[in-house]
């Protein structure tokens, strides 16, 4: 046990967050996302499982340790619902509230089309799958720096 770290944080996730550098991205995905096929192309090449967490809960836990990147227009992205564009649904609204609170000054949160999300997640550092059941509950978080 370590002080100051959520006891539900799996060692695999802690390891990944420590190995990520500025600009590396982690995808936080829902239970319907093709996590294993997507993760095969990432730096780690595997899925980190986070059972029992909604996407907003997973994001909140990650953000307790990992700073978000304010040096790009969007330090975090959420997956758009097909045909609705950048209209957030409830899971997005919950996560956006957390991300807005955690985003350093100058950073932003944006939307990304589903197919573009898939392509970007495959090029990221890791895929974190939670048990979020709400559709399109997928996000990309870009690691920032501690100033």
From TrEMBL:
Keyword terms of this UniProt record: Isomerase
Top-rank taxon: Bacteria
Pfam families on file: RbsD_FucU
Catalytic activity: alpha-L-fucose = beta-L-fucose; beta-D-ribopyranose = beta-D-ribofuranose
Gene3D superfamilies: RbsD-like domain
Xref: PANTHER family: FUCOSE MUTAROTASE
Listed name of the protein: Ribose ABC transporter
Source species: Thalassovita aquimarina
